[in-house]
Amino acid sequence: MSEPILKIENLVVHYETRTGVAxxxxxxxxxxxxxxxxxxxxxxGAGKTTxxxxxxxxxxxxxxxxxxxxxxxxxxxxTRYLSNxxxxxxxxxxxxxKIRGNxxxxxxxxxxxxxxxxxxxxxxxxxxxxxxxxxSRSEAEKRAVEMMETVGIPGARFNNYPHEFSGGMKQxxxxxxxxxxxxxxxxxxxxxxxxxxxxxxxxxELMRGLRKEFNTAMLMITHDLGVxxxxxxxxxxxxxxxxxxxxxxxxxxxxPCHPYTRALFDALPSLDSDVERxxxxxxxxxxxxxxxxxxxxxxxxxxxxxxxxxxxxxxxxVEPGHFVSCVHYDGKKEGEA
Length: 337
Hints:
alpha/beta
């Protein structure tokens, strides 16, 4: 096994607000190997985007703080550049500007807000290339045209502005920007949410092809299990800032263990069953500003018991590479001796 491109260990991130402290990410650990795609799945507010912004050094300031943990990107520990000291801010920002786009690229959820409306799309791609490579303006523009054509946009549209493109084409431009300097890791934050189904399929097919072409590792953030099944190698299910289950696609889709993972699959519509109402998960996710000291899923769980309140469960390996955070799985699958 080679060294992982991304390794996160025991990450804890809090947001300080006027009304209290929101515990957004709580003791999260995972790693991604070169060329591998990990799907990070969970409800809105589960902490998925906060993890991505922490990796990118883009936590909202003031307020966002890394309380503990270690993030290693391409062999370099970047956690030390996440200091909250004002004196260190400029130096940290300078270092992250070298990392962003060069080692790690990000595709944001809304392509329109990710593009500057007063610059042409070609200029924006070329700017990324010039920031990280010692090339002339003409060479940067040439590479930008090549990247546009790689993602299926004619190079002749170099001088068009973002408003002249459809939603799907704007997302392709954002992907071209993210891949312009061939980063080793690509973070995709729900890249197909704002697109219709046909365009979603095209964008996912494009990302799959580019991953093979550039051997780019990918962190796919989504709430859509269909997207995970289509493009990911592994899957991590996150709830209230904690990873409750992680494993390969076969583990998660063929033998889900955690009650929350099972509830997500039960909520999916089925073509084989005729039902009047879709099944939902009752209740709301635990308030990040008032998390319990025991399992955060307790109030919504259909398998809760007294043991669930004994403490906060930790991830345990139930089979090689398959980890679950639940008192019903004490290092083995249910039914095993």
